[in-house]
Amino acid sequence: MSDVSYSVPTLAELASKGETPEVLFWVGCAGSFDERYKRVTKAFVKILNTVNVKFAVLGTEETCTGDPARRAGNEFLFQMQAMSNIQVLNGYGVKKVVTACPHCFNTIKNEYPELGGTYEVIHHSTFLQTLIGEGRITLKEGGSFKGKKITYHDSCYLGRANNVYEAPRAVLEALDADLVEMKRCRTTGLCCGAGGGQMFKEPEKGTKDINVERTEEALATGATTIAVACPFCMTMMSDGVKNKEREADVQVKDLAELIAEAQGLS
Amino acid sequence: MIQQILFVITLGIAGYFIRKRFLAIRANINLGKAKEIKDHANVRLRNMLLVAFGQKKMFKRFIPAFLHFFIYIGFLIINLEVLEFVIDGVAGTHRIFAPILGNLYPVLMNLFEFLAMAVLLACAIMLIRRNVLKIKRFWSAEMTAWPRLDANLILTTEIVLMMAIFTMNAADRVLQGQLPEHYHNTGTLFFSSYLVPLLVNTDTTVLIVLERVAWWFHIIGILGFAVYVTYSKHLHIFLAFPNTYFANVEAKGHIQNMPVVTNEVKMMLGLAEAPAATTPPAEPGRFGAKDVNDLAWNNLLAAYSCTECGRCTSECPANLTGKKLSPRKIMMDTRDRMEEVGKSLQAGGPGLGDGKTLLGNYITKEEINACTSCNACVEACPVMINPLEIILELKRYVAMEESGSPPSWNAMFQNIETSFAPWKFSPSDRFNWANELKK
Ligand code: SF4
Ligand code: SF4
């Protein structure tokens, strides 16, 4: 870990100074608590700092969007969460939200508006793609990823649910890596097995775990990096790689981590 | 004249049965909850044109799309010939369009023969795919004897109907030489001309009978088929159109809101006034769905539109890894339950009150609990059916009416309620990740 210090302002701090950020970074529960995904949160914050995006987080004022509750059928709990989050967001006059979690992205973007919370919501893959496109992130050609095989695992909530297929791939292509596709990709991408609240329960009885099936497919491409853009996919694919005993030569990384790495930020 | 009377009676009988089934199906769909779908008319129309009329989603899998396309085009165009059949049948004419269309008529007849041959071959290949190659999606658990027979019956009937066209044309062609004043010249027709040598030496009376038998066989076959369709997965030939029109137009990730819950939550959070005590509380109804009448009508329409093709199930991550869930079965169960309720009501029975329900007697919790809400089934469906919507409604019932979700989900609910995260962490630790960065 470098000793550079990064700033992570909260909306409350900015508001007390009478300032408003360009964008709110919605960290999400996994981004806040999950040991592995906290590294993604930090990588993304480092990138935001480096390119001077004026951002803020909610800090302890953030709570679960309610997505897992809604998908497990508990509409009451979902709406309680949604409504109190919307009160906080509207209270600060938030206009634009970026998040690294496709589930938070989907919920805030598609499901908060009818409950009174309308914002411009962007997933970090699209955000990174824009930064690269604007030249605010520059990646030197022939960097450490040159020629390395990377495969991208589509998150259902980014892909099929919201038609974001190209942004994550554009980010990976900027790394000058050799992007290889799995047999089931884009619209037919296979779920990692964690959606719809499955993350929080044991799978039903079956013949195989979904994440193992998906990991086998990813490994079959010969890629040494499995790129993901979702905290649940991260967990499921990492577990899959462990199950196949390939942790030594295959890594599972989020897009933000890969960009941070390429920029020497990690 | 007798033929004309018989024909009108035949038409009448077919019409009677079709009407009866139409009304029954409409009544069954109306068991569902009212829901107004009037938004985005342009997008909906486009979906209908591209997906139903244009078969867009079929072409994700080329071979079956190609075969299906021939049958589809054949169906659309050969029906023009059926129009002639009907007019001839009622008016007692023979090939009434022949003198009107003149030189165009033989061209059209040849086109029909080519299509008929294409349909015949496509059906034969499909029969092979189902019964010899035994393609997996046609043999999964919910494809029991009846759904398999249904598919085979349809394909076989289409083959036989097409053969009737060829026989009729061949007999007609020979008769054109023998009795030119009654049989209009159709010119040489490509496929049936191969049958002509078999018939040239046949007695004229026999030929007349043969031509008539083939004609009657074809038209009765078509009318019978039209009645049969209403009992079969083949109903999609009509319902694919309304179903694609009424299908969701929002992002697939969006879940239907429950306004009843919104009102209650607003009151709990003090964002809305509780209704004055004088207004009687509105009947809240069930949260989620336990039976078909708890589902929205368009979900029920979707169940009748399902082609049982199994594309959804073949993409479903749960099904692929051996779980009980199959999105196709969800649609088939919904339809079967609707039919059961409808039949009971028609016979003056208890209908919905027969002690059975969709959830429980048809679909189990084990099935719905396996869904990852990944939308693969929704994406795969060639007629834009959304099995996920039904699964979610069933989950809502289990969670909110029965508190019967799996224990680990109940624990997750509790965590969200008490620590505002699905895991049991202290909310005050939520921002600790930043400490290392700030230093
Ligand atoms: S949404 Fe559910 S039923 Fe549909 S494919 Fe995914 S897991 Fe299967
Ligand atoms: S729901 Fe759609 S994809 Fe599934 S079997 Fe029915 S028609 Fe086919």
TrEMBL record, chain A:
This is (Fe-S)-binding protein. Signal peptide: none annotated. PANTHER family: IRON-SULFUR-BINDING OXIDOREDUCTASE FADF-RELATED (PTHR43255:SF1), IRON-SULFUR-BINDING OXIDOREDUCTASE FADF-RELATED-RELATED (PTHR43255). Residues 23-109, 150-237 form the Cysteine-rich domain. It comes from the Bacteria. Keywords: 4Fe-4S, Iron, Iron-sulfur, Metal-binding, Oxidoreductase. Transmembrane segments: none annotated.
From TrEMBL, chain B:
PANTHER family: IRON-SULFUR-BINDING OXIDOREDUCTASE FADF-RELATED, IRON-SULFUR-BINDING OXIDOREDUCTASE FADF-RELATED-RELATED. The keyword Metal-binding applies. Keywords: 4Fe-4S, Iron, Iron-sulfur, Membrane, Metal-binding, Oxidoreductase, Transmembrane, Transmembrane helix. InterPro entries: 4Fe4S_Fe-S-bd, 4Fe4S_Fe_S_CS, HdrC_iron-sulfur_subunit, Helical_ferredxn, NarG-like_sf. The chain crosses the membrane at residues 65-87, 107-128, 149-171, 183-201, 213-231. It comes from Chryseolinea lacunae. Coiled coil: none annotated. This is (Fe-S)-binding protein. Residues 297-328, 361-393 form the 4Fe-4S ferredoxin-type domain. It comes from the Bacteria.
